[in-house]
């Protein structure tokens, strides 16, 4: 699942370690992955259907439709810019750095990022080496 790693790396960028409470970390929650784009092409819906991303104050994890974890990362978020700027470091399956942008509009979260060695995106669409995802917050958080 090439896109799964991409999604998780991007999602990892969502929160900053400095933002430890819900007031400062408005992105905390569980999200359904609604759609995705990689290298300028849409990811087929059947490939992402049922996948979820959980964002806490200090961790990002993504699971597939069977709830098998496929990615985890740490992140830093700069909310002083529009859109927000994200720096991520994946912790699983392998350590990689990535740069991206984030936009929160109500319960919808847009994440777009570049793979290592590719320039950070400036819009919520992709070029070669860039990935974007749209996530929808689940109203009720479920514990594991």
Mean pLDDT: 80
Measured as a percent range, the helix fraction is 10-25%
SS strand fraction: 35-45%
Gross morphology is: globular
**In this structure, how is the largest beta sheet organized?**
8 strands, antiparallel, barrel
When the domains are counted, the total is 1
Total strands: 9
Q: Return Rg in Å.
A: 13 Å
Structural class given helices, strands, pairing? Answer: mainly beta
Write the CATH fold name: Lipocalin
Quaternary structure: single chain
CATH classification, class level = Mainly Beta
Terminal CA distance reads 23 Å
Topology diagram in text:
Layout lengths: L1 H11 L16 E10 L2 E2 L2 H4 L3 E4 L4 E4 L5 E10 L5 E9 L4 E9 L2 E7 L15 E8 L7
Antiparallel strand pairs: 1-2, 1-3, 1-9, 3-4, 4-5, 5-6, 6-7, 7-8, 8-9
Short description:
With 144 residues, the protein is mainly beta. It has one domain (2-137): Lipocalin.
Structure, explained:
- A hairpin with a 5-residue loop joins strand 5 (69-78) and strand 6.
- The chain has 144 residues and is mainly β.
- The protein has helices at 2-12, 45-48; strands spanning 29-38, 41-42, 52-55, 60-63, 69-78, 84-92, 97-105, 108-114, 130-137.
- The chain has 2 helices and 9 strands, in the order H-E-E-H-E-E-E-E-E-E-E.
- An 8-stranded antiparallel barrel has the order 1-3-4-5-6-7-8-9.
- 35% of the residues are buried.
